[in-house]
């Protein structure tokens, strides 16, 4: 890969040609090679080692979650364009025959499917908040969790860094406003230092989520004005528009109020998370250091292959 050429097509073509990713016929859905998976595995070990002193409780959720939970979270209000729900056939023999006939005729057979109670997880932390709220009051010192999950967002693209199904590693702090802001500030420093050890160019910048519609512009402006979201950016498919590979988010008491996350005195909890886009970091490493991991800089290999 020519690290001087930054565009989606050249990167994707190189990933296919070198057998690092494999086409599926759907933009944003790719097979991954053993080398690609090994890089992700070793990066995850690095993240785990960096976060180990904090003694977070580890929980891994599946890529599906309760549709009712997704609805209550407010995700559909802010990001309806990204959400996905699982649909299944629920008819009898007559409907099955109709379905097969529609498929044979090239018709829209999916109209015979109905939504199940399962939604595809849009972010690793979404199933966490109702799970913790059900346990009762949050202790005064707060709670810290380490999460991992496949996530789905419906934004098909030729940009390999914008996959529809991808993995997210997160640390989530639930506590007072002071506790969660301190947690986020700590990871803003640690996250950048970690990426720099991988010899990747990066910058941290104020950001906003892709809120939907005209009202979304106001929400995005408010998010920026309050400094609620920062991203660590690495040039992957563009120098002018680098890719967000790490995200540092302060939710205020949104999830506390939504799910009734409270301290023993009845005060609502605040929350913050740091998210690591695993595929994006791997793509950044292949983009900047080449397709052959054995030829990567010795200092980078020492960091990744020593954990």
Automatic annotation (TrEMBL):
It comes from the Bacteria. It is an enzyme of class 6 (ligase). CDD domains: Gly_His_Pro_Ser_Thr_tRS_core. Its EC number is 6.2.1.n2. GO terms for molecular function: ligase activity. Keywords: Ligase. NCBIfam families: PRK07080.1. This is Amino acid--[acyl-carrier-protein] ligase. The lineage of its organism: Bacteria, Pseudomonadati, Pseudomonadota, Alphaproteobacteria, Hyphomicrobiales.
């Amino acid at each position: 890969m020519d690290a001087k050429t930054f565009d989606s097509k050249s990167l994707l073509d190189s990933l296919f040609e070198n057998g690092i990713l494999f086409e599926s016929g759907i933009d944003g859905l790719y097979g991954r090679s053993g080398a690609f998976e090994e890089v992700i595995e070793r990066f995850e070990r690095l993240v785990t080692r960096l976060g180990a002193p904090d003694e977070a409780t580890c929980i891994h959720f599946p890529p599906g979650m309760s549709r009712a939970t997704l609805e209550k979270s407010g995700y559909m209000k802010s990001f309806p364009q990204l959400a996905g729900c699982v649909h299944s056939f629920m008819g009898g023999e007559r409907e099955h025959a109709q379905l097969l006939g529609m498929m044979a005729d090239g018709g829209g057979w999916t109209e015979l499917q109905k939504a199940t109670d399962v939604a595809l997880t849009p972010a690793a932390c979404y199933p966490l908040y109702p799970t913790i709220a059900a346990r009762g009051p949050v202790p005064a010192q707060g709670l810290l969790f380490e999460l991992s999950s496949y996530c789905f967002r419906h934004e098909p693209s030729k940009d390999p860094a914008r996959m529809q199904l991808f993995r997210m590693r997160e640390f989530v702090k639930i506590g007072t406003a002071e506790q969660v802001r301190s947690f986020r500030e700590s990871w803003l420093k640690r996250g950048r230092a970690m990426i720099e050890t991988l010899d990747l160019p990066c910058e941290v910048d104020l950001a906003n989520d892709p809120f939907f519609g005209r009202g979304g512009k106001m929400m995005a402006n408010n998010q920026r004005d309050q400094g609620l979201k920062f991203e660590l950016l690495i040039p992957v498919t563009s120098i002018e528009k680098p890719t967000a590979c790490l995200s540092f988010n302060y939710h205020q008491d949104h999830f506390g109020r939504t799910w009734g996350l409270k301290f023993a005195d009845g005060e609502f909890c605040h929350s913050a998370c740091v998210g690591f886009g695993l595929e994006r970091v791997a793509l950044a490493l292949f983009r900047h250091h080449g397709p052959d991991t054995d030829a990567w800089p010795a200092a980078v290999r020492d960091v990744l292959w020593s954990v």
